[in-house]
Amino acid sequence: MTSRDFAKAFHYEKENLLDLYFERKQTPNNHRAEVSILIDRLHLDSDQKETLHKMVDSVITDVMYAILLGLDGSGTIGNLRQQDYNITDEEGNTVTDGELGDAAYDIFHGDQSV
Questions:
Q1: What does pTM read for this prediction?
Q2: C-alpha distances out from residue 99 to 2, 5, 72, 94, Å
Q3: Bridge partners, residue 88, by sequence
Q4: In the structure, how many helices (H) and strands (E) does the chain have?
Q5: Strand, helix or coil at 28?
Q6: Which residue from 4, 66, 98, 111 has the least number of CB within 10 angstroms?
Q7: What is the DSSP letter of 107?
Q8: How far apart are CA 20 and CA 23, in angstroms?
C-alpha cells in the first residue's frame, strides 16, 4: 500500500460516512445511522439540508486531513508534539513515508476525482 492508497482509503471512508448520514445508503445491518436520525429531527428543507451536507463534508475533510498530516509528521495530533509515526501495511510497506501529507492534500483538497 502506498501513501496515496492510504489517503484514498480515508477519503473513501469520508464518502461512506456522508452516504450513511444523508441516507444515500444504510448501515450493513440495515439500520439508520444515528446522525441520519438527528438530521431528520431538524426538519430541514432541501436547501438547508444541502448546506448541512456541505458543512458536515467540510468538517470530516478537516478532521481526516489533520489526522493524516499528524500521522505523517507534518502536523500535530492533539497536544502531542509534532513527530513522525511509522505505519505499515500487512506486507511491511510503510505508508507514512513523508509523502502522506502531499497525497492527503491532493486527495482532500486538490484532485477531487480521487
A1: 0.85
A2: 9, 11, 8, 10
A3: 94
A4: 4, 0
A5: coil
A6: 111
A7: I
A8: 5
Q: How far apart are CA 73 and CA 99, in angstroms?
A: 10
Write the DSSP assignment of 55-85 as a string of letters. Answer: HHHHHHHHHHHHHHHHHHTSS--TTSPP---
- What are the DSSP calls for 2-22, one per residue? -HHHHHHHHHHHHHHHHHHHT
The model's pLDDT over 21-40, given as tens digits with 9 standing for 90+, comes to 997 666 667 778 889 999 99
Burial class (CB in 10 A: 0-12, 13-18, 19+), 87: middle
CB atoms closer than 10 angstroms to residue 39: 19
pLDDT value at residue 65:
96
Residue 94, strand partner residues: 88
Angle between helices 3-21 and 46-72 (to 10 degrees): 150
Backbone angles phi, psi at 90, to 5 degrees: -60, -25
Instruction: Name the residue with cell 467540510.
Output: 58
pLDDT band at 96 (very low <50, low <70, confident <90, very high): confident
